[in-house]
Amino acid sequence: MRFTLEVWTQASRDEEGHFERYDVDGIDPDASFLEMLDELNARLAAEGKRTIAFDSDCREGICGMCSLTIDGQPHGPNQVTTCQTFMRDFEDGATIRVEPFRSGAFPVVRDLVTDRSALDRIVQAGGYVTTKTGPKPDPNAAPVPPAVQQKVMDAAACIGCGACVAACPNGAAMLFTGAKVTHFNLLPQGQPERASRARSLVLAMDAEGFGGCTNYGECARVCPQEIPLDVIGMLNREYRRGARREDDTVGTRT
Amino acid sequence: MPAHDVLIIGAGLAGQRAALAAAQAGATVAVLSKVHPVRSHSVAAAGGINAAIAVEDDWRSHAYDTVKGSDFLGDQDAIEVMCAEAPAEVLHLEHIGVTFHRDETGRLDLRAFGGASINRTAYVADITGQAILHVLYEQLLRFGDRIDRYEEWFTTSLIVDDGGCAGVVARDVRSGAMEVFAAKSVILACGGAGQCFKPTTNGLICTGDGMALAYRAGAPLMDMEMVQYHPTTLVENGFLITEGARGEGAHLLNADGERFMERYAPSKRELASRDVVSRAEQTEIDEGRGVGPDGRGIYLDITVVPRRRTLEALREIVNIGRDFAGVDITREPIVIRPGQHYVMGGVRTDVHGRTPLDGLYAAGEVACVSVHGGNRLGANSLLDTLIFGRRAGEHAAARAAGTRMPRVSRAPLHDDARRIEAILARPAGAGRRVSEIKEELGTTMNRHVAVFRDEGGLRTALDVVRRLREEAESAAVDDRGTVFNQDVLGAIELGCLLDCAEAMVVSALERRESRGAQFRTDFPRRDDAEWLKHITITRDGDGAPRIGYAPVTITRWEPEERRY
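^ Those are the sequences you sent over. The predicted structure of the assembly is below.
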């Protein structure tokens, strides 16, 4: 197959970027998008030209490292990670635009590589269970019914890739944050900090410069882990629930 | 220069668990990782984690299964520690929010796994590694005031001073800046060396950095000949199909539609240990009963598992089958073959994670305690990372409490900076490309250091590895910049891979018997009289690998013939 690529090129965080055009041919339809870029890089290198920096590791859809915006869609046309996007999904001869994940909260490190540590700082505000010392309670003493287990599992499947942020017209991190809150607030072990968790995370989200949610739903449509939009409803409910509590501890780290 | 009581290289499960343990013991801690922690390769672990939690189970049964799985090469004192401490560790994970699968009544569920005499594997669908890694990282962030994180920093060497490890030199991947990190204790937790092979189930980052760093600093590697081929990797590209599939009841079928494992392991069949199953598959393929492209594969039939159960408990491989093989695994068999998956060997440690080099610890796949011996059981690797990560963290913190911060000179930094400048200054077009050399290494290892080995093939592999090492000295890099220069890292990683590969081949040549993952067609029997011992590899003054031996610790279980 043959493609024309318009690839975002940016030497470093502080420099201006631009699109660079490349023509590639002889691409195997079953090559993944990243393998196609490997091929392009190999050819560029052979010609002594500058190669394109992009992130990837496991290449089987679990590590959350790959992060390209392809023709305006985070991870490309299908609801999977970039490494699970195949060239057979594109028309032969197509022009494809390749950019990094776009969000004010994700500065570009180089070319297609972004810094997504803003997501970590949301979690740092309380997206965890505070373990107590002493003997651990028997997990079977607090059974988790299958329906709850399923909801928690769906939320905990988040791989932290940030596609939800890149897809959102507002640059919101609500799906990510909602997944963290849903995961912990539904579990017995997450109850001690339940009242404050949603508010702490939302404040951190705002402080990082993520936008607000206006129900576009783009996040859930691109999420490769198929995290349901419900987690945002859960986040909103838990946020209000926390606000009603008299012993509210807004913004404190538990 | 940054100085910490405990400095941890690598932020997968072993590294993060070590960091949390050391911080909770009161040490100042830094974690330094070449990738963002949740991208570490632990994330790809699928099937689960073993622990004798069930009321009818006993940790001694888990330990015996592990010893037998190791083909009696595992050190039984270390295996006892791991298995005895496993239940508490799994309960700890559950307590900090890992969503282990529960049954219809809401209780923890355990699945069957290879080589286990009872259902013993706690799991989170088939994304157990991801689920644990993210929850541990959340804990790491929680203790952010006590644990410094250096994310996307590449360690270029260990600093050895006065016969002990005193810190490391590292390069900031984003800026290219170099820094010296002083530390009272250093823990290597930077994973395996699967990229020595092509294909492999391992991620691109698994380049044996930690093994090479320790080896160059004078610490011995052990059991390096023991390389695990996983029985079920996709025939096209080597992607892992979790052992959980067979745990849920999937069958292996040859071209005649025969469930051939009945001949090789009449009692455990598909759930015999991985070395046994991979060897059986390779025998079927070699004898002309393979399926798929050129008959190089075997059918894995998951359609015998109820569809609803597959969609719930094996959801990741449903996606992998669909996306990468175009197969709906709930409706038709998928074609698999054995593929490189894990290195049982690594930096030699004791049960506290201590290497023979004072101040240097290792835990996880980079280390060799040895709990896996000749063959690791499925779902024991996550356990290994967590138990020995924690123990290394605790011991390193205790050691640091009674030690002064070493005075470290900046000379090693200048050495490494010069080494990197020399790589960048190599003339373009003069030598082979890094990617070409890595490709040749991977295909050579996969041909000659695989499920079946013999002297001729191993000698060929050794010649190739040594030639590639010379070629790597002049391999040109294309990117000469400082910001996020992946090329220069690739050149350094290639050097690490070649050191690891050489140690693997030399050890495999030395072990003139068949045990666990090492099957020598020229020495097809296990020979306890001669070879019930570990092979160690230490770097000589002139850079050549020197072979040594270490005894196998036997506490309860005398070697016996292995039957599944």
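Chain A has two domains: 3-113, 116-244. Confidence is low (pLDDT under 50) at residues 248-254 of chain A.

Shout if you want it in another format.
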